[in-house]
Write a structure and sequence with these properties.
The complex is a heterodimer of chains A (331) and B (397). Chain A has helices at residues 7-23, 26-34, 39-46, 57-70, 76-90, 94-99, 186-218, 230-258, 264-290, 301-313, 318-330; strands at 105-108, 123-128, 135-139, 145-149, 155-158, 167-171, 220-221, 224-225. With 331 residues, chain A is mainly alpha-helical. A 3-stranded mixed β-sheet of chain A has the order 1-3-4. A 3-stranded antiparallel β-sheet of chain A has the order 2-6-5, with no helix packed on it. The radius of gyration of chain A is 20 Å and the shape is globular. Chain A starts with 6 loop residues before the first helix and ends with a helix. Chain B folds into 3 domains: 7-105, Butyryl-Coa Dehydrogenase, subunit A, domain 1; 133-242, Butyryl-CoA Dehydrogenase, subunit A, domain 2, CATH 2.40.110.10; 255-391, Up-down Bundle (Butyryl-CoA Dehydrogenase, subunit A, domain 3). The chains are: A mainly alpha (331), B alpha+beta (397). At the A-B interface, helix 7, strand 8, helix 8, helix 9 and helix 11 of A face helix 9, helix 10, helix 11 and helix 13 of B.
């Protein structure tokens, strides 16, 4: 049992941080609202890191935490955390092209109820970045995968509070039974994806809290920085506690998955629930501490709050994961 | 980052479990909830029951009292990871090491770090529990603001004359020595943190009066301690005169890594107990109850992960701010869980009849005892202050 990062992991995290802060500035994230094509520039830098999706989940999580801190744009998460592991599990050739950064892809699995589980519905929901990826991996009710050309699939963009991550409904009826793969262990794949998303959320939450702390140090009222008031300090201390325990829960879950430990089921649900609760807590308190300025379109805060809440609702809300935990501890 | 335990660590665990199976006294195996330290429940009329003292000595003699210490101090030079295993295995079995924490957890490590050669010799008996300590910290006007303490020690040749009062002094009615924080430079002559000194005071010195305080559960395990012209040799100063504040910081940090991890494990047991009670009461199919128990499980599991992380940095020799997080979170969560235990029982939640309701009224009793946990050892508000200023870097008021 060791939570400390290896030298290689420290280097990975630092590299990711430098790369992402440089190539995913807020100006890009904002430009992307009106023109999703601007994300191509970022993808050129991120595609070579998709291969992390083949390796230990802890490493992918370290990278994704940095992605979340800058609101990195798709298709990185969709390709590295969703499509590549699914393609590997299904044993399709596309996996090599994805790992090499030559193609991008996303996954279509959820049905009308929005839950990510194998089903036979033809219209798939909550498909990330469906109009801009090379391939869409559609999963059927038996967990078999069809590889569809992204451009050939009809899609409908679905409005979301999150302007930084686009979601779609896609028509997967062109998937033919004869083209499907062997069934994959959807639960195993989903567990990995859930922890990966939780790691990205940690990065976003980290920014939300850091922004509030910075602002509390600068903003002067009653002749002192508002961060010197206990009312503000205790709010932020509680946020920090939630963030730190969520972060620990995420990396613990990643280690459990990497070790194929028996506790990985519970740990993954705990990770996403804790990450979601920390994200919502820090989002609200960060907004409160920022006061009026946080309420403006001009301030970046709302972009992070949008991502935080969209991620909370993707791959299971905290409440959904609590219900799964209840199933595991109470039967 | 890795999850696996090494072969040496697994061997350590096996040896520990064998020892516990063979030596742990029956009194400790009755499934009591020790996380609340309810002495009334543990010892009956005795402040520290004999079986508890014998158990501590047995642990010491077998090198299992503080595993990270060398054998002469009741340990076996265990690694931090092994200490983690030790804490978890004990908590799993609800086994506590000692029924009086001040000696092994505060006085001994402080003496080892700050004491002179003579004082360091006291560490062994303190850890074994042969020498019982109380810690003279809180005063009527110095609680969270500990540095305002005003019990004064005036130099008179080769001795100090001590006058003043301590309060909430645990085990002072049975302690042989007091690890006492006194003011040696008056408040008007130095900043309040600068004039504090630690003295070792023999509790049988003339001029010391101990008045037990009955606490909320009816037990009397802490007291007021009055000092009237108490003579203490200058040789009994620990560390340097006027440098005692450093020891408060040190003594609070000692053992903390392990202790808070232990408290996380205890809260984990409480969640397990809640689940078992929910099943007994037929509430395990109730959606609301299921959600609340799952939330509790998530909170404990994320804290445990945070404890592991803190322990890992502790093991690497870096300071671990996780301690403040864990102190804050486990004490608050514990209180909430006992309250939930009462809630699950509906009308019987407030019944304390040994023959009615669940577990002899354990949930309500533990809830009452748990009020102390968010106050003692640095209140939740102080922990939040520490997190805000020392970890988040927010400006002091």
């Amino acid at each position: 049992m060791d939570f400390t990062l290896t030298d290689e992991q420290v280097m990975l995290r630092d590299t990711a941080h430098a790369l992402l802060t440089r190539h995913c500035p807020m100006s890009l994230v904002r430009a992307h609202v009106d023109d999703p094509a601007v994300a191509d520039v970022l993808w050129e830098h991120l595609c070579e890191w998709v291969v992390l999706g083949d390796g230990p989940l802890t490493d992918l999580c370290l990278f994704l935490e940095e992605c979340g801190a800058v609101l990195a744009l798709e298709p990185f998460l969709a390709t590295a955390a969703l499509a590549l592991p699914l393609a590997r599990a299904a044993g399709v050739d596309l996996a090599d092209a994805l790992a090499a950064g030559e193609s991008s892809a996303t996954v279509a699995i959820a049905g009308a109820d929005g839950e990510w589980r194998a089903n036979d519905e033809k219209t798939k929901t909550f498909v990330l970045e469906a109009d801009r990826v090379d391939y869409i991996l559609a999963v059927d009710g038996d967990g078999r995968v069809s590889v569809l050309s992204g451009h050939a699939v009809r899609n409908r963009p679905v409005g979301s509070i999150d302007t930084t991550r686009r979601i779609f409904e896609v028509d997967a009826s062109s998937a033919r039974a004869s083209d499907t793969t062997r069934p994959v262990d959807v639960d195993r794949w989903l567990r990995r994806a859930t922890v990966a998303l939780a790691a990205e959320m940690i990065g976003t939450t980290r920014w939300l809290l850091a922004a509030a702390i910075d602002y509390a140090k600068q903003r002067v009222q009653f002749d002192v920085p508002i961060g010197s008031f206990q009312a503000i300090q205790h709010k932020l201390a509680d946020c920090s506690l939630d963030l730190e325990r969520a972060r620990s829960a995420v990396y613990y879950a990643a280690m459990c998955v990497d070790a194929d430990d028996a506790e990985q089921h519970r740990a993954a649900h705990v990770a996403k629930a804790a990450a979601g609760r920390a994200a919502m807590h820090c989002a609200k308190e960060s907004m409160q501490v920022h006061g009026g300025i946080g309420y403006t379109w001009e301030h970046d805060l709302h972009l992070y709050i949008r991502r935080a809440y969209a991620s909370e609702h993707l791959l299971g809300t905290a409440g959904w994961h609590h219900d799964r935990i209840a199933d595991l501890i109470l039967g | 980052m890795k999850l696996e335990w090494s072969a040496e660590d697994e061997a350590f665990r096996t040896e520990l479990i064998q020892f516990l199976d063979e030596y742990a006294p029956p009194e400790i195996k009755v499934g009591r909830d020790f996380s609340d330290g309810g002495v009334d429940e543990v010892g009956g009329d005795e402040v520290i029951p004999k079986w508890g003292r014998d158990w501590q000595a047995t642990l010491f003699d077998h090198g299992w009292m503080v595993p990270s210490y060398p054998p002469e101090l009741g340990g076996r030079n265990a690694t931090p990871v092994q200490t983690l295993i030790f804490m978890e295995e004990l908590a799993k079995r609800r086994i506590v090491r000692s029924l009086h924490f001040p000696g092994y957890a505060i006085a001994a490590p402080s003496l080892l770090e700050f004491g002179n050669d003579e004082q360091r010799k006291l560490a062994g008996p303190s850890i074994r529990g042969d020498l019982i300590w109380c810690i003279g910290m809180s005063e009527p006007n110095a609680g969270s603001d500990l540095a305002s303490l005003s019990t004064r020690a005036e130099r008179d040749g080769d001795r100090f004359i001590v006058n003043g009062q301590k309060v909430w002094t645990s085990y002072s009615m049975v302690a042989a020595k007091c690890f006492c924080y006194v003011r040696t430079t008056p408040l008007d002559q130095a900043p309040k943190h600068k004039g504090i000194t630690v003295l070792i005071i023999d509790m049988d010195t003339p001029g010391i009066e101990v008045r037990p305080i009955k606490h909320i559960t009816g037990a009397e395990d802490f007291a007021e301690v009055f000092f009237t012209d108490v003579e203490v040799p200058v040789d009994n100063v620990v560390g340097a005169i006027d440098d005692g504040w450093r020891i408060t910081m040190g003594s609070l940090a000692h053992e903390r890594g392990g202790l808070w991890l232990q408290s996380v494990a205890m809260v984990q047991q409480t969640v397990d107990d809640l689940c078992a009670m929910a099943r007994r009461l037929g509430l395990d199919a109730d959606a609301g109850v299921r959600r609340r128990l799952a939330e509790a499980y998530e909170q404990v599991a994320s804290l445990r992960a945070l404890g592991y992380k803190g322990f890992s940095s502790f093991a690497q020799g870096s300071s671990a701010p996780e301690h403040s997080y864990l102190k804050l979170a486990t004490s608050e969560l514990g209180k909430a869980l006992y309250e939930l235990g009462m809630q699950l029982q509906g009308p019987y939640g407030a019944v304390s009849d040994p023959e009615r309701g669940e577990q002899r009224g354990r949930w309500a009793r533990s809830f009452f005892v748990s009020f102390a946990n968010t106050v003692a050892g640095g209140s939740s508000e102080i922990q939040r202050n520490i997190i805000a200023t020392r970890i988040l870097g927010l400006p002091r008021q």
